[in-house]
Design goal:
By secondary structure, the protein is of the alpha/beta class. The chain has a 5-stranded parallel β-sheet with strand order 2-1-3-4-5.
């Protein structure tokens, strides 16, 4: 793939389609290959051409976006666009790149688009994979390497990041921090916890063993976590 990411927008709401088209047109590395009103039209379009990325609504007539994605053998990467936050766990289960909740600002859209750019860059050029971010700790910027993270705990407007060397406390919500993590390497296990998949040593009932720490595993997320562990 070149630097351009080909994409299709699918949404049953004309206003949402128009807004997303405007966002795609403003983003120089995205190329729009089609706009669909429902999943059935999208299915027909995908039979005619291959694309890299789908901006896919969930609540649509005839067939919702989640069921449509499950029906595909080799789907493109997907960014869900929806007004319903309760589908987020299913988004993780289906390994989507991101999950945008309407109304969607361009700032949030661009962050999601950049995540797709990172994904395709890493896939096609592994040596260019993004493996760290900078976080503000005690007034200074510190480099945080993803491989060092064991787990993250949310505490309202602050989070604690537990690494192989230390604990870092930063001003952020857990939801905002999750958006910066590579989804294929981290998973939410509880409303207040996100863990590194490769750091899980054991699952014991409603707890995960991460290093020497026990991390809670909520009943609603347990099946999804087990599925990712067994991949």
């Amino acid at each position: 793939m070149s630097n351009q990411i080909t994409c299709i927008i699918t949404d049953d709401e004309p206003y949402a389609r128009k807004g997303l088209k405007g966002y795609v047109d403003k983003t120089d590395f995205l190329t729009l290959n089609g706009i669909c009103e429902n999943a059935l039209a999208l299915g027909n379009l995908l039979k005619q051409q291959k694309v890299d990325l789908l901006f896919l609504d969930i609540q649509m007539p005839y067939l919702n976006g989640v069921d449509f994605l499950r029906s595909l053998d080799s789907p493109p990467k997907v960014i869900f666009t929806t007004a319903f936050e309760q589908y987020a766990v299913q988004g993780f289960e289906l390994d989507v790149l991101d999950y945008l909740v309407k109304p969607i600002s361009y700032e949030r859209f661009l962050k999601s688009a950049n995540k797709s750019l990172d994904y395709f860059s890493s896939k096609n050029n592994p040596q260019h994979a993004v493996n760290s971010i900078f976080v503000k700790v005690d007034g200074r910027l510190e480099k945080l390497i993803f491989d060092d993270i064991f787990y993250v705990e949310g505490m309202e407007n602050y989070i604690s990041i537990y690494t192989n060397r230390k604990r870092m406390v930063i001003h952020s919500t857990l939801k905002a921090f999750i958006e910066k993590l590579p989804l294929n390497r981290f998973i939410q296990t509880h409303k207040s916890f996100v863990v590194a998949l490769d750091k899980i040593k054991a699952v014991d009932g409603n707890m995960l063993l991460i290093g020497s720490n026990e991390i809670p595993l909520s009943r609603s997320m347990r099946e999804n976590v087990i599925r990712h562990i067994l991949k």
